Amino acid sequence: MSDKCAFEEVHSQPPAAQQKNLETFLHEQKDIPHSLPSSPDFVKLTNIGLLTNNSIPWAVVRPESALQVSRIVAYLVANRIPFTVRSGGNNFFGKSQISNTVCIDLRSISFCEVNNDGKTARIGGGILFEKLISDLQSKGYSAVTGMVPPIGFVGWSSYGGYGPFAWLHGLGHESILGAKVVDWRGCIVDADADLLKGIRGAGGGFGVIVELTIRIFSQGNLLSGHIIFDESDTKNTVANICRETERQLLRDPAESLYMAPLFIVTPLGKAPFCQVMWLHEDQEQGRREIENITKLGPFVHTTVKNTTHLGAIDDFRDNFAMPGMIGNVGTISVLSLTEEVIDVIAHHVDIMPNEIGLGFAIHSTREAPREAAQASCFPATERHFMLEFLGCVDSEEKVKMTDKWLKDFMEAIRGTNQANILPSTYINLTPPGQNTLRRAYGPNYGFLLSLKKKYDPRGVFNTAPPFVTLASEEEFLFSKMVKI
């Protein structure tokens, strides 16, 4: 298909005609499952996990192969129908589903094939953490993931990918070794070095990622779970947890205990707790490290146990399933948990309203190896802490109150030493308007725009982060077709 035919030979039709023709096309594609708003499974398919999204796409199309994705993209582009791509089970800002568009849901493309070298695997563009780890673990392997089972690996990893394995194996984007992409013409292409660099940090902004080749590793049993404290001395407990998290990150990776502070209001209350994971063979040493963590505050209980990677994320799901929440989220990254930053965190966690779903979490990673940093457009290559602000509650009436807490908290962090605050923010948690492409991608900004012009000259994938959330009017010069 030539560049010309998709946009210059087809005149734009009225939306009603586009929708009718789309339904006719989908009806003719007997081998491609799809769901319309009138379909019984439509509501279930459009559930985005956490935040309520009232957008109603014209259709959810569920391809089962790269060839089917190719066919769908070619039709949508030729008929000037904007579309979004969904590769997982959760989306904070609802941008995987937009009214009067088509949602290409990749979750049926969920294969996992370990290559003969035993060091890499080919995975489908819609595979979720739970299936990926289940498939790999059955063969004696594992891969870097986050902790929430229904999150899609591609969307998580390609925009950064924080998680408990980052301290040993790097962030998710560092595990990406190859990719197959359906481009704006509907062609299936193997990503070259430049496109791979763009995918590692800017994800699906250049095409539909239908397959990745990722690095895998052997992983035996591990220690994982939560350490829970009483809320009678919240301020001091939170401060101690933050200091210990910084100390562990600075240690030798072969000896450190992964810590992810989680200060989240659950049905059991707002008691401080921390996710820990020991990935090393010497589990007795791990238990000693975990015992030390219990001394950081008035200790109540621990769920830490000897388990597997899959068991650890299953436990996390069982403890934190809170669907149907509404509200806002935000993120700021800092180089260090300084005493100034810790004071702000401890104060705002202490005064956090006691509303289920509200919370704050700290993610972290070590400095990226030079080669990995140069092969990615992910800008935060320094050792740093990614702060996650969760202003999520169960009713509209509570949002105003929780929004004030969230905004005051973030402003207080922004008011700390500016040299400690990174200009880049984690794309998956950055709301529209909270950052800019130029600031978020820094020295890679020019590369990002040139790559966009090369691989998506008509702006077909402008509905994908980071463009849908961060791009300005001037940066949307590629096409007005999908301006949201």
TrEMBL record:
InterPro entries: BBE (IPR012951), FAD-bd_PCMH (IPR016166), FAD-bd_PCMH-like_sf (IPR036318), FAD-bd_PCMH_sub1 (IPR016167), FAD-bd_PCMH_sub2 (IPR016169), FAD-linked_Oxidoreductase (IPR050416), Oxid_FAD_bind_N (IPR006094). Keywords: FAD, Flavoprotein, Oxidoreductase. One of its GO terms (molecular function) is oxidoreductase activity. Residues 53-219 form the FAD-binding PCMH-type domain. Transmembrane segments: none annotated. Belongs to the oxygen-dependent FAD-linked oxidoreductase family. This is 6-hydroxy-D-nicotine oxidase. It comes from Fusarium acutatum.
